[in-house]
Amino acid sequence: MSLSLDATQLDRYSRHVILDDVGPEGQKRLLDARVLVVGAGGLGAPAIQYLAAAGVGTIGIVDDDVVERSNLQRQVIHGDGDVGRKKVDSAAEFVANLNPDVDVERHELRLDAGNARELIADYDVVVDCSDNFATRYVVNDAARIEGVPVSHGAIYKFEGQVTTLSPDGPCYRCLFPEPPEPGTVPDCASTGVLGVLPGTVGCLQATEAVKLIMDVGDPLVGRMLFYDAMDLSFETVPYARNPDCPVCGDEGIDSIEGIDYAAGCQIDAA
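^ UBA/THIF-type NAD/FAD binding protein, sequence as received from the core. Prediction below:
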């Protein structure tokens, strides 16, 4: 792997390069990396912003939505002039203005069982910034089959959670074998969300992705980090791989065909 950085890159990433645990090799790893961000909303916005600033060479963005004015309280890569635009376009323009080293691959679609494996297989890390359980289970299942790590984040009102799903560690279904009943967990449109909360959680997700790319530090594998913005507290809770997990257990699946993610996400026993 060539470690050559041009003069502009040495200047841009100088605070990385002088870190003993990063150096020019770590920065080159970032520039060569491909990261897929699922969702360009509250969590995706800060994740995209800091991944681009760090010099992740290729960022894929999956989102089928458009910018609404109510998004702007927390989705910091979109501005008032972007209202009505496709989020993938607004996000790509933001990244281009921030760091010309970064290529953005726009996927204006909803990630689902029909496209997830093909999309995820083309990237080194997935940052799951989705806002619904069906997509989270699709991401988990497809990424596990394809051997791609996932940085997962979720928020609710004043609280957030982050964990990293490694191909050799426990998966999302080890934590949550089944999603909650429909309607029991309201979204932010009906309950509200503190605007700065997704900034904190999305930055933590980006941090985990950068660590995975550079192979440094101790990622949140088998650990769920809970953040409470009201009293500014963090708590880490360990969790283990379930040998009976239908995805990562001893007899895990090798396909997501036939799983109805719209109706409960259950995996029937073979």
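Residues 33-238 form a domain with the Rossmann fold fold (CATH 3.40.50.720).
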